[in-house]
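Hi D.,

Good news: the full-assembly prediction came through. Inputs first.
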Amino acid sequence: MIHPIAVAGGSHPSPDPRDRGGPAQPMLIVQGLKKSFPIRAGLLNRTVAEVRAVDDVSFVVVKGETLGIVGESGCGKSTLARLLMHLIPKDAGQLVLDGDPVGEARGVMLDELRRSLQMVFQDSASSLNPRLPIEQSIAYGPRVQGASGSSAKAQARSLMEKVGLNPSLFGQRYPHELSGGQKQRVNIARALALDPRLLILDEAVSALDKSVEAQVLNLLGVLKRQLNLTYIFISHDLHVVRYISDRVLVMYLGQVVEIGPVDAIYDDPKHPYTQALLACRLSMDPEARVEAAPLAGDPPSPVSPPPGCRFHTRCPFVEEICKTAAPVLGDVLALAPERHLAACHMVQPGSGHSRAPDRVGVH
Amino acid sequence: MTDAIVPSRSPAATHLPAAPQRVRGYWGSVWRRLRYDYVTLFCLVLILIIVASAVFAPELAPLDPYKSSMAHRLKPIGYRNYLLGTDEQGRDMLSRLLFGGRVSLSMGILPVVLATAIGGLFGVLAGYYGGKVNTVIMRTMDVFFAFPSVLLAVAISGSLGGGIVNQLLTLTIVLIPPLCRVAETATAQVRTMDFVDAARATGASTLSILFTHVIINVMSPVVVYASTLVSVSIILASGLSFLGLGVSPPTADWGLMLSTLRQSIYVQPWVSAIPGIAILVTSIAFNLVSDGLRQAMDVRS
Amino acid sequence: MNDMSPPAVAAVPRPEPFVRVEDLRVTFVSRDATVRAVNGISFDLERGKVLCVIGESGSGKSVMMRSLLRLHPKGRTVIEGGMRVGEHDIASIGDRTMTKLRGSLVSMVFQEPMTALDPLYTVGEQIAETVRRHEKVSREAAWARALELLELVRVPSPERRLKAYPHELSGGLRQRIVIAMALSCRPSLLLADEPTTALDASVQIQILVLLRRIQREMGMAMIFVTHDLGVAAQIADEVAVMYAGRIIEYGDARDVLVAPKHPYTRAMLASTAKDQGRDHPLEAIAGSPPDLRALPDGCSFAPRCAHAGPDCTRAVPAPVTDLRRHMARCVRTRLKAGLLTFDPGVAGDPAVREGIDLAARSSPAHCASA
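Then the structure:
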């Protein structure tokens, strides 16, 4: 069972009229989310293996915060985003949006979820319909939700202004006539068109030039304050995640390996994977070069993840216990969200790892 | 301005980001590229002339295309008032060519239009839904695909019988599978694009997504492919008529004319070749136009 | 115009450069527009050194590099200026010779390893084939060389990987294979076009460490194109910052990355999210990069520059080079005690200052033209 979580400390956003569960009710509770993709082969199209893209992921998103999600390619962060958006069906798990379970008889219906939860896609050739003027791309959502043509258009124009695009100059342009940064502004405007409360930003600035990336990050900050938004910010760029996030969730091969407040994660990472990821950040100083790569090899394939701790094949502290027993993260749903948790035998007291603390008294 | 709400210093805020001065739509940009493609333009004009001459055949034809004259059989090009000579029954070749164009062009264009609508619809459905829907539709198409198109056309029209309507039906059935395949491939590609997911995330119905986001993007590859099929259809129709499976004499039709004049090839080789030349020129023109269209419709170029 | 030569006072004898590019201009001509992608760049590169070219998309960095291999489509590209690698004049040699030089003298590593590999052949077949194309060796010798190359790029269990197809390998391994292929004929100059951009951070750093080690061991010169200042700091000896087809700052990696003098480089550094406080906005650079079909007059960065004045738009700023060979093209940079300094208060030279009124009147026009 899930209980409302009391958030100790931290500033709550001002009460929002759209609020149903109260300010302390998390915006989103994700419980035991699972998704695997079958790999079919052979004449009969039989399932020969499966990719466990998201494997028992649980976390909460507090109202008004930015939760950063980091991890390498193949860790399941994009699948997670699509699961949250209900773009692909989940195998197991539950979502609770502002106190109401999603897709159940007494809970919120999908249609309402659509309005509360929107996604900004990575700027790429495919994020905008190439044959639609951008004003129509933005107005599409309101139209679908039943707005009249003229009011959807007016809304699109005001949103374009909000994201810093002059509607009379850009409204009738096609995506190929815009620069990467401008396209990303359109993507953001489109996501905002249904007046959502939670935005999932999937690698939303990763494809942009650095000088444009800063503009878009600033825009996201301004919009968040103006519109009282909550963000889930998915990225592989650790610098950007540190700048924008309040809390950070680290994923490895479909599982959460560490979660906690951003400074705790960056200043005192507990999981060896997080430590290695952070060591991979590049310094801007040519005299502070990394001489040996912190992590050897590529991430193992999610098709057949190693037994025990999934990171043990690359971990410098690996011991026997790591190869057999999977470490647990702890009950993220029951504990306060600002707790710093890591799924590693080295932080679990009495786990059998030689570096594990003796008594209860972890961070 | 792109920097409207960026709170940092924003000098020279009048600077406009890189973008063309004049905003033009997709078709505007297609036309702009086409305008300099002289080969395509020439072929377009040629097609217009051929179509116009078929449409206005009753006005343009100097003589009655069905009036035969035993005295003036197989006369050479330029004989008296027979500009292109006469056929084996002494009918005016020019008039027959003009009237024959009506049938041949209709047989080129109509089946393609019908097949594009039907095949395109099935292809879009198969591509968008995937899974079982795709299997059912595409495997059915594969059955037709397994036969060479000429053989299939002969088989179908053989069982349906001759006549213009049956020929139209035959050609449409033959052209549906390839168009369906192209539409399916293009749709499956569009289906994976993020903007389709973004539309699904707004809670849009499948129908709305198909019409607003999918068909509009699938259209150009399908239209380009369909335009290459016009010449195929003309040739197939002529072939069927040639074999006696299409329109029946005395209707003027390029394929049928070629067939009946075949016996006179040693008597009047040039006159006999005229319907063949008409088929050749028309189909090459359609092919070149579709080539040019494909290039012009490529947004990246 | 030889921008990079040191001033007379600092005439330290320098070895003859291995690569010399002089006033290179690359223009793409099409029916619709003339795109001036590279607008006069010059640099020297010694053997055994790494030059990092930093720039955003559209800065002309990749175009410049592809010109060194003459990879541009012939009919639509106009290349002017001098390019010399070793004793070969790249700009004037025949196509036959150029084909021979590709791979043996100059070699290239691309951003997307999957497109550089043929999916139908095994890795070993592809490397051996590349070796045999340039050297007359037996099949067995070529295969042995392929194995050697995989060991050089530290591919684990190389014998097994030689028999693998590209799709069976991870992104990091594929990029190692592509690097091995590029090295197969012992090139003297390696060109790398964002070879780590498509990779995960943990793999990116492996590849950077590898490239750096191989480059040092083989004594190659390397030109490395990237948009990431952090990557440049990892691998560069010298850094060239490009904007709108010109090198706007050049110098020793540390000089440029730690104490940049051009407002663009300074703004780029200031705008990165690295170690910035969460509470205040980033110092973003306003606007977007210029349209290469219609470049603004004068300094191309002026429309976005915080320190721009009317004097910036009069002419393309001349390069100023200091004792340490640190160069910047900006009217606000000065030589002070032989070193480059950036002084936002300085106006352009007096001759230019006379034209301020005139330039001020004409400046809206230049803004609109962009």
